Amino acid sequence: MTGATGDRPTSPMELDEEKARELEEKFDSEIRFRPLAPLAGTLVGGLLIVLSVFHYYTAGFGLLPEMEHRGIHLSFVLGLVFLVFPFTRKGYDQPTQSTLLRPLGIGLVDWALAIGAVVAVAHVPLIPLDDLAFRVGNPNRWDVILGLVLIVVLLEATRRSVGWPLPIIALIFMGYALWGPSMPGILVHPGASVPQLVDHLYLTTQGIYGIALGVVATYVFHFVLFGVFATRIGLGQLFLDCAAWVAGRYAGGPAKVSIFGSALFGMISGSSVANTVTVGSLTIPAMIRLGYKRHFAAAVESTASTGGQITPPIMGAAAFLMIEFLGLPYTTIILAAIVPAFMHFFGVLVQVHFEAKRGGLRGLRPDEMPDLKAAFRRDWPTVIPLIALIAILMAGYTPYLAAFWGITLCVAVGLLNPRKRMSVGEVLVGLRDGAKYALAVGAAAATVGIIVGVVTLTGVGFKLSFIVTSTAADMAGWIGTVVPADWFGPKTLTLLFTLVMTGIVCILMGCGIPTTANYIIMATIAAPALGILGVEPIVAHFFVFYYGVLADITPPVALAAYAAAGMAGADPFKTGNTAFRLGLGKALVPFVFVFSPSLLLVAKGFNWPDFIVAFLGCVIGITCLGAALSGWMLARTAVWERALLLIAAVLLVAPELYSSLLGLALIVPVLMRQWSVYRAAPVPA
After folding, report:
1. Nearest CA to 77 among 160, 191, 172, 180?
2. Which among 243, 362, 423, 647 could disulfide-bond with 261, CB atoms 3.0 to 4.6 Å apart, if both were Cys?
3. Residue 372's Cα: distance from chain center in Å?
């Protein structure tokens, strides 16, 4: 076939970038802007491009001093949020005509908030460092006034761009800081006055201008921009063609293409919703045509897409957050992420395979498969930026320098590649869209700074950790009275219940909060609880991060699942429940690497025997779990078989040799019965 680009052969699964952008804006509220008048649209587009150029230039030629760099980033972000996100949903339907009360079609209140945000943000970076050092702990009147202005406009900007949950959490934490003497029990503290709280949140790098904003301004933004350009030059299409060639021919082909394609595309996307709608625009209709139920097709795509945020080398920018929090080299972080990411996709693949076998669903026909040789002949230059980026990271250079060269090479490939050439106008659109993706996460990161600031000001993180571990110990003591002591010791049970409670909190905190913001909150509040029980920091951080990602497919606020449901025309809640079921492998694996850190490859005490036992136990256990939940193995499973498989799955993922052997023993009768039924009535391939 020949596409619109002349002699460029098209793939049977051709990615329509314009359609993908429209779907993202429709289903991802974080990048859905209100309609703008032409002049306002030009102004906003120009400011977005300037923001991208600023980050691109500083990544390659040197960052500004910390407060200046973060201040410039935040002033652009907050100012633009008020210009592009309306006060309520009704604002998306308001006319764009310019009037006296709505200059350029934007209300006077929004203009005032935008200007107020820029002035309040810029105040701190403009203070000379010597003067700032004197005023920390002794703010003047203008510091307090402008600090209060920034807190108010920041909460409102976050509400508009991300939703209510995060601002409400920030307000609760600020209330805790102010009314400390009135808190019950262990939560009581001396309390802080309004000037003291504003001083800590506004004038120091432990609050709004803290690590959360810093990581977004120096790492996240750059890799989002790289992902936009990598997709524009055709790397995403090449990934999809590779996925279709690898997995498309097997039973339920499009669903397996969805899994492999989302894993590859997620490496350059970093957003569950963006990954869902981009890859899903091709795979969801193909799955439905093949015979998958609409809610299942949507669930497969959303579950696979959330895996993009845990897939090395970029991990939705979480890898770079972990570098800052843990002080570990980049190579250590991505090595630790390899096996857990594999387990997630393997768990989804197993259930999809069993579902396809149960429904007798075919794979893609040869005429529906891409020509891989033609795809590489066409798009091989698009791999150059990704290889260069990874090589620079592995060589030990800063992530933002790697992103600088990755973006530079993307633009060079786009301008020079005759098969898919970008115009200068398309480069500008890429710069605009890259900044567009960063607005919501930038506002959210600054609001997370409020939460982190209260934690450092009051010490509440350690108090919450003590409450969690004490509650877990009480539960362990009660269970210890009914379970033989030689099965599970008090320490093991305490850790188990702490993990369960931490996982639940991570999922609840992740409802409606971007993954990056959720991870920072949980790393500040929840990870210390695991540290008290002796869990290694890298293990604790991976645990809270993985459970935070699960929120994207966990009802009632499963953003990725609901986006996929909208594309498939499926019931959102049913899709969310199915997506959570498909992602249960991801829910089990974090428990494994806490009790057997060898699964992370780089944790302390790594040894090959422990790794092999844990790895094989996970693979077999996840397979058993998939068979039990799907109702199919080699043939349809009976109720007693599903029960045995569920028990065996839990025993197999438990990182102890004796529990794994017991789990293997339980699946023997299931395998015997399944094999006899399969031999008697072979299932067509």
Report:
1. 160
2. 243
3. 30
Q: Percent of the chain having pLDDT more than 90?
A: 44
Report percent pLDDT > 70 for the chain. Answer: 95
Peptide bond before residue 556 is cis, with ω within 30 degrees of 0: yes
CB 298 within 8 A of CB 568: yes
Distance, in Å, from the CA atom of 614 to the CA atom of 638, rounded to the nearest integer, reads 28
| Residue carrying the six token digits 């402008």 | 146
Contact 144, 197 (CB under 8 A): no
Distance CA 349, CA 255 (A): 8
Residue keyed to tokens 């699960």: 550
Instruction: Enter the tokens of residue 286.
Output: 């193909």
What is the C-alpha separation between 589 and 649, in angstroms, rounded?
Answer: 11
**pTM of this structure:** 0.88
Tell me which of 248 and 466 has the higher pLDDT.
466
DSSP 370-420: --HHHHHHHHGGGHHHHHHHHHHHHTT--HHHHHHHHHHHHHHHHHH-TTS
Helix, strand, coil share of the chain (percent; to 5): 75, 0, 25
3-state per-residue secondary structure call for 22-73: HHHHHHCHHHCCCCCCHHHHHHHHHHHHHHHHHHHHHHHHCCCCHHHHHHHH
What's the one-letter identity of residue 423? S
Nearest by Cα to 546 from 518, 572, 574, 567: 518
Q: Using the 8-state DSSP alphabet, how is residue 217 labeled? A: I
pLDDT band (50, 70, 90) for residue 8: very low
Nearest to 441 by CA among 327, 562, 321: 321
Cα–Cα distance, 575 to 565 (Å, whole number): 6
The average confidence (pLDDT) of the chain is 87
- pLDDT at residue 208 tops 70: yes
Residue 158: name the closest of 234, 86, 81 by CA.
Answer: 81
Nearest in space to 442 (alpha carbons), one of 48, 58, 120, 158: 158
Beta bridge partners of 2: 9
655 pLDDT exceeds 70?
no
- Confirm if 540 and 530 have CB atoms less than 8 A apart: yes
pLDDT bracket for residue 437 (50, 70, 90) = confident
Cα–Cα distance, 343 to 598 (Å, whole number): 14
DSSP calls for 261-322: HHHHHHHHH--HHHHHHHHHHHHHHHHHHHT--HHHHHHHHHHHHHGGGGSTTTGGGHHHHH
What does the alpha-carbon distance between residue 231 and residue 489 come to, in Å, rounded to a whole number? 51
pLDDT tens figures, 357-388: 888 888 888 887 888 888 888 889 999 999 99
Find residue 632's DSSP bridge partners. 636
Are 502 and 526 a contacting pair, CB within 8 Å?
A: yes
CB 509 within 8 A of CB 548: yes
Does 10 have pLDDT greater than 60? no
